[in-house]
Design a protein that fits this description.
This protein is mainly alpha-helical and 837 residues long. Among the domains are: 15-170, Rossmann fold, CATH 3.40.50; 177-360, no CATH class; 692-823, Serine Threonine Protein Phosphatase 5, Tetratricopeptide repeat (Alpha Horseshoe). 65% of the residues lie in helices and 4% in strands. Strands 1-3-4-5-2-6 form a six-stranded parallel sheet. Strands 7-9-8 form a three-stranded antiparallel sheet. Strand 8 (324-326) and strand 9 (331-333) form a beta hairpin. The longest helix has 19 residues, at 416-434.
């Protein structure tokens, strides 16, 4: 090639990922390529709408998309191919783009996916990009994953419903002249124009059938007349079998010829191929056949138990192009159309046996612990085969356990909606098969309750968990592992209802049960201890919570297999307990360490990391690092809102946290807008009289007073104090906090006698139920000294003020904003930051 010709070669994109090899025999379709290029440019000029290639299977939609990507690659900086026929895999395929986009690593697929979509839509670092979703059959399953921005999206599908969502281009079979051109190009001089026309007629001009026929003719050097004769003979037999109406008989005949040739030579290979037909169309991990070889039935056992026989079978399948093998990925794959043909030709009895063996293979090769993040890639590979294999119809206990483990994997990584949909299918099918009181049905219901809890749908979670737990106790007994696990979820739903003391009692029972069954430091026991610590924190017993969390944290930090997610949750909860116990600086240091761990191990958009970020921002504000706190809380709120939407407890808590940071920074108007946004949803999520709903109004009252309306603030605080006292008692943190602010409201209205009486009551309760050095004690004492002075008790006020300032200096530091404010004789206010449930 000359230097000049080199300069004519189009430059490839900077990122070229997963695009299949270019078909050297691609023929025709020039009009479709022109229409596609013109249309995708025109539409992009408006709103960057994707283009959908729609048509029946085998017409060449994928080949057209491949050719488009290759032919126009010089127009793009990034080209990314996504196999979309299994919607459960689309998020992780998108998430894999994060590295080349320069995004930090994240193991939570849903969070990583959102980060990729935002980056593509921003046009930085790549403005000219092309994302191709191949075989996206259901628009509803992937429409939320389609990036909108300066680049292009191309979709291939057989589903005509895409025309309801996006501009579509219809793809039909080849025109006859295109079929002839393709066969002549593919077979060269081995076929005449008349022979090519005859083949095209017999194969219905379907590109896939033409390719299969050409491959067979090229490999065997069979004359066209002989091929046509065999094809006609095979057609008669094939038409006697059940077949899908969308598959032309001529294509099934061409496929059967290849299978028949192999069956004569290596029958075990065809048996293995039939087995592969009952997996999904995504790559099948090679290790499935190794790890699951002892658990299969009589059809596959002789093959899988003989490593040499298995290797020979796989080699022949690849040689005959019946499977696609990827050595680097250690996978094999059968085209979906070929899978369908194999299933169609398999007698019904044999289908059931093969399906069951696939179910056993999948379950037998699955990792044992879905909470172990290192095993998530294995679960991801197997997830593609859950629904296509019909696994949810299997009643085998270990198969159902795998189905449940797969759901657990999905929601611990943050894919709640996918897990929720699968559980709905499980519960319906298993109830039909085994009855509503079967253990598997009950376990699935508890998992569904856990997802509702993660989505902070507390009333729904409570109904599911309480009903399932009642039946579990009847059917399984009180101290079975499944019952104890169900009690864990039930206790969380009680916290969601504001029943903190009942939740603590239930969690204490769970911890004791797990300790009897498994010991103090087994994973389930550690989770139970973490939950019990949450209960203690919610009942203002911060010292007890801190001790439980510290013991668990120290064990997990030195133990293998405890799980990064649980360690991060425990670490963050410990930092919060330390802060709530009044040790702001230590709590901030711990929160910073845990947050950095979460970013490094789980990614900055993982739900557990975001809760760690929220805790760090609160701690930074408590220690006077207002600028850092505001920046981090704003970012955390944005991420949580993007992940969950507005009506989620974590988003709402971050909104309150952001409002508090804005108020501390002097931005009262924006702080008011944020607290109003949060309080719009608190009654909806928690209920009107939930402690969180009422305590959140402490922040609303504080903003009212700072904005000059002390009367409104008093009214809000008085109402909140009444409900909080009824729900939690007068000695609870939230109630005391509300009382401190109400004291300030009264003083702002000039009612110093009432303020003093309330302040003395607050101070006595805090001294009794907290410690003299606790932050609430310091704030209350500083305010009380002002009310004592205002009511004429000068000497008592001076003594209390002097002692309080000494404690402020020792505990929070001389330069802390609250120390300086108290020293200047200003009133100190309290606010509320909702913890996670």
């Amino acid at each position: 090639m000359t230097e000049n010709s080199h300069s004519m070669v189009p430059q490839g994109p900077k990122v070229w990922e997963r695009v299949p090899k270019r078909n050297p025999n691609f023929t025709g379709r020039a009009d479709l390529l022109t229409v596609l290029r013109k249309s995708i440019n025109t539409v992009t000029a408006v709103v960057a709408q994707p283009q959908a290639l729609q048509g029946l299977g085998g017409v060449g939609k994928t080949q057209l998309a491949i050719e488009y990507a290759w032919q126009y690659r010089a127009h793009y900086d990034l080209v990314w191919w996504i196999s979309a026929d299994q919607p459960v895999l689309v998020p992780s395929s998108l998430a894999a783009m994060g590295q080349v986009l320069g995004l930090p690593p994240a193991t939570g697929a849903e969070q990583a996916t959102q980060a990729v979509l935002r980056t593509l839509q921003s046009g930085v670092p790549y403005r000219s990009w092309l994302v191709i979703f191949d075989n996206a059959e259901e628009p509803d399953y992937i429409k939320d994953f389609i990036p909108r921005g300066p680049g292009h999206v191309l979709i291939t599908s057989r589903n005509s419903r895409w025309s309801d969502h996006e501009p579509t281009i219809q793809v039909d079979v080849f025109r006859r002249e295109e079929s002839v051109e393709f066969l002549r190009k593919r077979l060269g001089g081995a076929v005449s124009e008349a022979g090519a026309a005859l083949l095209a007629e017999k194969l219905g001009d379907l590109p896939l059938a033409l390719e299969q026929a050409a491959a067979l003719l090229a490999r065997t050097l069979m004359p066209v007349d002989e091929y046509v004769s065999l094809l006609e003979e095979q057609t008669g037999r094939l038409l006697s079998l059940e077949k899908a109406p969308t598959y032309p008989q001529s294509m099934t005949a061409a496929w059967q010829l290849s299978v028949s040739q192999l069956e004569d030579r290596v029958p075990e290979a065809v048996e293995l191929l039939r087995c592969c037909a009952f997996f999904g169309p995504e790559p099948i991990p090679r290790d499935v056949f190794r790890r699951g070889n002892r658990l299969v039935g009589p059809r596959l056992a002789p093959i899988l138990s003989d490593a040499i026989l298995l290797t020979n079978a796989l080699s022949n399948l690849e040689r005959y192009a019946l499977v696609k093998v990827e050595p680097a990925a250690r996978t094999l794959q059968v085209h979906r159309l070929n899978q369908a043909l194999l299933r169609d030709e398999t007698p019904e009895k044999d289908r059931g046996e093969l399906r069951h063996e696939v179910h056993l293979l999948l379950a037998g090769s699955a990792p044992s612990d879905p909470d172990d993040e290192t095993k998530w890639p294995s679960f991801e590979e197997l997830a593609a085969h859950l629904e296509p294999s019909g696994l949810i119809n299997c009643v085998e206990p270990n198969v159902r356990k795998f189905a449940i483990d797969l759901v657990r994997y999905l929601y611990v990584r943050g894919s709640y909606k996918q897990a929720e949909a699968l559980l709905g299918e499980y519960i319906e099918k298993w109830t039909e098969q085994s009855g509503a009181r079967h253990q598997d049905v009950l376990v699935a219901q508890i998992h569904l309750g856990n997802i509702k809890l993660a989505l902070t749908l507390y009333p729904e979670a409570y109904e599911i968990d309480s009903r399932a737990l009642e039946v579990m106790r009847e059917v399984l007994g009180h101290e079975q592992p499944e019952t104890l696990w169900a009690m864990n979820g039930y206790a969380t739903s009680l916290r969601g209802r504001g029943d903190f003391l009942r939740a603590r009692d239930v969690d204490a029972e769970v911890r004791e049960g797990y300790e009897r069954l498994y010991g103090e430091n087994e994973l389930r026991t550690l989770r139970a201890r973490n939950n019990l610590a949450l209960d203690y924190a919610l009942t203002s017993e911060y010292g007890e919570a801190q001790q439980i969390l510290q013991d668990a944290y120290l064990y997990m930090s030195g133990a293998e297999g405890s799980g990064r997610r649980l360690l991060l949750q425990t670490w963050t909860n410990l930092a919060r307990a330390v802060r709530l116990n009044g040790r702001f600086h230590v709590g901030t240091d711990m929160a910073e360490e845990s947050f950095r761990y979460g970013v490094a191990q789980l990614g900055e958009d993982h739900p557990a990391t975001l809760l760690g970020a929220k805790e760090l921002a609160i701690s930074q504000r408590r220690t006077g690092r207002l600028g850092e706190a505001l920046e981090l809380m704003r970012d955390t709120y944005t991420r949580l809102r993007r992940l969950y939407g507005d009506v989620h407890a974590d988003t709402m808590a971050a909104a309150l946290g952001l409002s508090n940071a804005l108020r501390a920074f002097g931005e009262l108007d924006e702080a008011q807008a944020m607290v109003d946004r949060a309080l719009e949803f608190y009654p909806q999520v928690f209920g009107e009289d939930h402690p969180f709903t009422q305590a959140s109004r402490i922040n609303l009252a504080l903003l009212a007073r700072l904005s000059g309306d002390a009367a409104k603030a008093r009214e809000i605080d008085q109402n909140a104090l009444k409900v909080l006292t009824e729900r939690l008692g007068r000695d609870h943190d939230y109630t005391v906090t509300c009382g401190i602010n109400l004291q300030n409201d009264l003083a702002a209205l000039g009612e110093f006698d009432q303020a003093r009486r309330l302040g003395e009551e607050n101070y006595q309760r805090i001294q009794t139920h907290f410690t003299p050095d606790h932050y609430l004690s310091l704030v209350c004492a500083a305010n009380l000294s002002l009310d004592l002075r205002a009511t004429g008790a000068e000497d008592e006020a001076a003594r209390l003020h002097e002692e309080t300032m000494r404690r402020f200096d020792l505990i929070v530091g001389r330069d802390h904003p609250d120390t300086l404010a108290a020293l200047a004789g200003e009133r100190l206010n309290c606010d509320f930051d909702p913890p996670p449930i």
